[in-house]
């Protein structure tokens, strides 16, 4: 049995992992779907003071409450920022760190640092009527399940501690069917690094629904 911790992306909620979590549990594993402050099931607590550190703390607290000692940690999209932050605190407990079409920051980088002018414009324009709380990106704003996202989470950097170097395995899954995408730069980086396992999913950004069987196979390969 393997313990899995799943972290969702911006504007969303833990529901993004409903199918993957169910499939992993059916295979005999324990699964924690992280619930981030101000998002998903905790949307009532949304406020502009929520930063990246708060989301990292959320995940760590929930891991401790679940009693997980060793686990596979996965993050989708913005969740890549969160799982990187968790790794700087709990790297020695992480058997595999999985980035699902996700942001992959280096030391001292925020999500703002690793996105471009188009994204920056959306983040600023999307919170003008409610300062500090960013609307979903254009094209996703009609989805009733998506809510606003705290701006501070996008501009706070991750700082490495050395603990992240203790993670045993690193896996990156790049969705080839989403364009324009901010993730090709990360895909190219890990493809050139023999310490990473690299996969491509023929689907849009939501790999969990676009290639559920492939994603499950990759996640199960991280077991044990």
Low-pLDDT sequence parts: none
Q: What is the CATH first-level class name? A: Alpha Beta
CATH H-level name... which superfamily?
A: Alpha/Beta hydrolase fold, catalytic domain
Count of folded domains: 1
Main sheet makeup:
6 strands, parallel
Relative helix content: 25-40%
- Total strands: the figure is 8
**CATH topology (level 3) name:** Rossmann fold
Order of helices and strands: EHEHEHEHEEHEHEHH
Average of pLDDT: 96
User: How much is the radius of gyration in Å?
Assistant: 16 Å
Q: Could you tell me how far the N terminus lies from the C terminus, measured between alpha carbons in angstroms?
A: 8 Å
Description:
This protein is α/β, with parallel strands linked by helices and 224 residues long. The chain has one domain: Alpha/Beta hydrolase fold, catalytic domain (Rossmann fold), CATH 3.40.50.1820. Helix content is 32%, strand content 17%. It contains 8 helices and 8 strands. A 6-stranded parallel sheet has the order 2-1-3-4-7-8, with helices on both faces. The protein has a two-stranded antiparallel ribbon with strand order 5-6. Helix 1 packs across helix 8. The termini are close together. The model has no long low-confidence stretch (mean pLDDT 96).
């Amino acid at each position: 049995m393997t313990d899995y911790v799943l972290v969702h992306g911006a504007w969303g909620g833990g529901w993004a992992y409903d199918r993957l979590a169910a499939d992993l549990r059916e295979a005999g594993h324990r699964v924690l779907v992280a619930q981030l402050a101000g998002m998903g099931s905790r949307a009532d607590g949304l406020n502009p003071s929520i930063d990246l550190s708060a989301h990292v703390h959320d995940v760590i607290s929930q891991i401790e409450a679940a009693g997980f000692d060793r686990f596979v940690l996965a993050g989708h999209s913005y969740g890549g920022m969160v799982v990187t932050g968790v790794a700087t605190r709990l790297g020695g407990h992480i058997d595999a760190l999985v980035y699902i079409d996700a942001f992959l920051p280096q030391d001292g980088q925020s999500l703002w640092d690793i996105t471009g002018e188009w994204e920056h414009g959306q983040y600023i324009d999307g919170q003008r009527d409610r300062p500090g709380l960013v609307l979903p990106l254009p094209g996703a704003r009609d989805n009733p399940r998506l809510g606003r996202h705290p701006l501070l989470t996008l501009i706070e950097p991750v700082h490495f501690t050395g603990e992240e170097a203790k993670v045993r395995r690193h896996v990156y899954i790049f969705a080839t069917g989403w364009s324009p995408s901010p993730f090709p730069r990360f895909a190219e980086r890990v493809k050139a690094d023999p310490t990473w396992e690299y996969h491509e999913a023929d689907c849009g950004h939501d790999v969990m629904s676009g290639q559920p069987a492939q994603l499950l196979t990759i996640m199960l390969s991280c077991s044990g």
